[in-house]
Amino acid sequence: MSSVFIVVFGLVGFAFGWFVYSRFIAEKIYRLDPDYVTPANRFNDAVDYVPTNKYVLWGSHFTAVAGAAPIVGPAIAVYWGWLPALIWVTLGSIFFAGVHDMGALWASNRHNARSMGALSEDVVGARTRALFMVVIFLLLLMVNAVFGTIIAGEMVDIETSVVPAWAAIPVAIAVGVLIRRKVNLFAISLIGVGILYFTIYLGTLWPVETADSWDGVLLGPHGNWIIILFMYAGIASMLPVWLLLQPRDYINGAQLVLGLIVLYSAVFITLPDVTAPMINENLAEGTPPLVPILFVTIACGALSGFHGIVSSGTSSKQLNNEKDARFVGYLGALGEGSLALITITAVTGSLYAVSTVEWGNLYTGFGDGAASAFIAGGAALITEGWGIPFSFSETMLAVMVVLFAGTTMDAGLRLQRYIIQEWGNIYSIGFLKNNYLSTLVAVGCCLTLAFGATNGEYPGDGGMLIWPIFGASNQILASLTLLVLSVYLMRLKRPSLFTLAPMAFIVIVAFWASLWYLFDYIRSSNWLLVGLSLAVMAASIVVMLEAASVISKIRRGEEEPAVDKAIESAE
Fold first, then answer.
1. pTM for the complete prediction?
2. CA Rg, the chain, in Å?
3. Residue 527: band (very low, low, confident or very high) from pLDDT cuts 50, 70, 90
4. Cis peptide before 468 (omega within 30 of 0)
5. How far is CA 375 from CA 23, 144, 155, 248, 392, in A?
6. Which of 62, 248, 341, 347 has the greatest count of CB atoms below 10 A from its CB?
7. What's the CATH fold of domain 4-570?
8. Hey, where are the domains in the chain?
9. How many CB atoms lie within 10 A of CB 90?
10. CB distance 87 to 278 below 8 Å
11. Rounded to the nearest 5°, which phi and psi values hold at 434?
12. Beta bridge partners of 349
C-alpha cells in the first residue's frame, strides 16, 4: 500500500476539522467575540502582555507547543502498527486537541490571561488552585528535562546541527527588533528563513564535534550540553517575549511550514510504499499494551495538556483579537497534528526501510525509533524526492527537532517562573517573587530531574526514561483542562458535551496508563518516578473530585456567589 493513503487520510480529516468542526465550536460553543477587549490590549506592558499579529502569534504558539513530542511520540508508537497511530493522531487533533487548545486560550482571555491553574479557582473553587498548579509545575519539570536530554542527544549524534541551532538565536533577535519596528512581515519572514537555511548549509561545512572532544570533560558531551541548554533557556525566559521567545518561535514556525511542504510534496513525488505492518503482531516480550499506552505515547500531535499551559500562560497574553483564538489555538493543534502525520509516514515508508523485514530489524522493540527515525526517514524522503544531498536533509530535520525542543524549553521555563512567582505571592515568600531567583529555582529543579533520572549510560541520559510518565501526566493535565472548560461552559449555560466527552475518554486512559507505569516503576525500584507519578495522580484525583462536586451543585441549581460573580465579571 502507498504511503499517500496515510497522508490523504490525515489531511482530509484535518480539513474537516478546520473548515467545519472548529467553526462550529468557535461560533456556537465558545462564541468568540471580536469586540471583546483582550488582556494583551488592556495590560500592554511590552514584556509579557503584547498585542500580536495573529500570524506571528500562530508561529510562536505552534512552535512553543510542538517541541519534539509530535515527532518522538508517533515515531515510537508505530511499533504497534501504523493504523492505531494514524487514527489517534487524526481524530485526536480534530476532536480533542483543537477544542482543548482553543478553549484554554479563550477561557484565559476571558479571565485576564490567567493560567489554567489560577483560572480553576474562579471556575471550580479556591481549593483546586494549589493542586492544579502542582500538576502543571511537575509537568513543566518533566517537559524541560525530557527535551533537554533530546536536544543534547541530537547535538552529540548529528554534529552538523550545532551551528544552525545556535545561529537561530541572533536571527530571532533581529527578526523581533524588525517586527517591533513594523517592517514588512513577509519580507522579514522570507529573509529570516533564508538565513536559517543558509546556516544549515554552514553546519554541514563546519560540524562541531563534541562526542570525543568532551568525553571525560566535566559531565561529558551530553551532560555539558544539558547544562549549557538550561543556562540559555533560563536567560531567554527572562527576556521580553517580543525580543527572543516570540520571534524565535515565529521564524521556527515559518521554517517548519516550509519543511512540512517539502516533506509532504516528497511523499507525492516518490510515492513510497508502506513497509511497516498495519497492526504489528510480532511484538517483543515486555511491550506495553496498545490500550491504554498508545494514548499517552502520542500526546502532542493528538492531545496535550502542555498546550493548555502555553495557551493560558503566554499566548493569551499576546492575543490581539478574541476571534484569533480559533486561528492560533485550533489551527496550531492541526499544525502539530500534521507534523505527527508526516512522522508516521517517514518512519513507516519504503524509503526508511525497503521491506517489512528490514523495518522489523530497525524496530526491534518498544522505544526504538524516536527522533532519529524521523530524521533518517524524512531525510531519505527529501533526498529521493527533491534531489537535495542527504547530509543537508539530515541536518535540516535535526535542526528542526532541536529548534522546536528549544523553543518549548524557553516557554516552559518562563511558565515555571510564572508559577513560582505566583506561589511567592500566595504564600508571601519574598525571594520567589524575584525574576532572577525564581528562574534559578526553576532551572535547579529541572537539572535535578534531568540528572536524577538515569539509565546509567551517561549523566543526563534519563530523558527517555521520563517519557512515559511525561506522556501520562500530560494527558491527565489535558483532562483537567477540559474539565475546567466543561464546568465553565455549564456555568454559562452552554453545551458542554464537546469538552466533557473527550475529557471522560482521556481521563480513563491516562489514569489507566499511569497505574500501569506506576507498577512498572515499583517493580524496577525507580522511586523517583514512583514519587512523581503518585504526586500527579493524587493531586489530579482531588481536583476532579472538587469539580465533580461543583458539577453536581450546578445541576441541582445551587449557587456559589463568589464563583458566580467571578464568572459574571469575565463575561
1. 0.88
2. 22
3. confident
4. no
5. 35, 21, 13, 22, 11
6. 347
7. Hydantoin permease (1.10.4160)
8. 4-570
9. 24
10. no
11. -75, 135
12. 274
